[in-house]
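Reading group handout, session on sequence-to-structure problems. Before we discuss, look at one worked example. The prompt was deliberately terse, the way you'd type it at a terminal:

> structure Co-chaperone YbbN

The input record follows.
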Amino acid sequence: MSDPRTTPSIFTRGAVDLGALRPASKPAPAGPAGPAASPAAPANPGGAPPVVIDVTEANFQTTVLELSMTTPVILDFWAEWCEPCKQLSPVLEKLAAEGGGSWVLGKVDVDANPRLAQALRVQGIPMVIAVVGGQLVEGFTGVLPETQIRQYVDAVLKAGGVEVAAPEDPRLDAADDAMMTGDLDAAEAAYRKILAESPQDHAAESGLAQVELYRRVTGVDAEKALARAAADPDDLEAQQLAADIEVLSGQAPEAYERLVAAVRRSSGDERDSVRKHLLSLFTVAGPDDSAVASARRALARALF
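And the output record:
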């Protein structure tokens, strides 16, 4: 299993034959015929099906494939040792609870279920994909802002024929959809149009900063980039690229700390370049992020 820090891409693509994960059919036991029961998640003691379930290689057929015929299932691939997973999972669990059963969150421990992770082409964690009607819906790797995770959930629900609330700003929804599908040019154009009309739109600012971030890491070998930064702390270009990778891997506080340290070690135009790069990463997270507030204070101390 790849370390999440070496997996900067947020998009998961490629066909996966989910049929291969179905166990061979078994003859039905003899007995009186009756109506077939609809697949559902295991019931809670109170009778209502849970919105968060543990998925294993043994129960994948019933808890994911069969359930997905009636209810979208979003899979969260995690491991106990994965720190970014501990940031993403609570957000997914909160959204599942808010969904009230409109979708189910399936949690997959990749260490306990390596064959399942391999079959679904899990290259890094945390990774999120969905299954709707027995078909795979592409997802993302790493930790995204909650607003984007909500948009992904809405897209999954729409794919499953579930009615979702209309977005507050259709322009922003269209821009976010373009970014989630990897059309960065369309996303950039849409965000810039919003900002031309509403210069103080923080969501559009964040979206545009994310587009620029994804472009900077496209085609980058994350493992080599991180090694280069570790080998030479004074290589400011390497430090900035490593920070980009860390942000996309859900390690934003570490990225901020890295660049604050680079600000302390630099001066003149180089220092200003690092400072601006750090500010762009703050914009990705948004103005209300607690880690950003702490990092801004650290940056101020480093500058003055």
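Points for discussion. First: The first helix runs from residue 60 to 66. Second: Strands lie at 52-54, 73-78, 104-109, 127-132, 135-141.
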